[in-house]
């Protein structure tokens, strides 16, 4: 087991344990707040390491809490805490030169998350993902993890202002 995988397993298990009450509350609120016959979880096929497809689970909510079920994929080894943005199988960013991104597990967070996430043009996000694939190391992962929560908070606090403008 590599140091990165050890951090993923330990971090994923610790976060699942600490966040399990919040995960239960989000599941309950989605259940109460929706009349969807599709249930609490959204399922989406994603290309994993080596191009192997798996079904990624997220909550049916638009908040950052929607991604909490991804911790299960981290523990199972389908995803990493840090890596390139998960993409659908055959997505244009996973073909040609972008196929390099399939040499690592997709991540819950990554350079794309701390660098502006959805505000970034597709091309820039792709470059950040490929930079991560080519240059990742455990120290970079730890820095990205440390910067993720502040980046998500900044984005959430900036949204109401952006809608008014």
Description:
This protein starts with a helix and ends with a helix. It contains 5 helices and 4 strands; from the N terminus they run αββαββααα. With 165 residues, the protein is of the alpha+beta class.
Largest sheet: number of strands, sense, barrel closure: 2 strands, antiparallel
Strand content: 5-15%
The secondary-structure element order is: HEEHEEHHH
User: Cα-atom Rg, whole angstroms?
Assistant: 16 Å
**Weakly predicted, low-confidence segments:** 160-165
Global shape = globular
Helical percentage: 40-55%
Number of β-strand runs: 4
Strand order, biggest sheet? Answer: 1-2
What distance lies between the first and last C-alpha atoms, to the nearest angstrom?
49 Å
**Which structural category fits the helices and strands?**
alpha+beta
Per DSSP, the total helix count is: 5
Mean pLDDT: 88
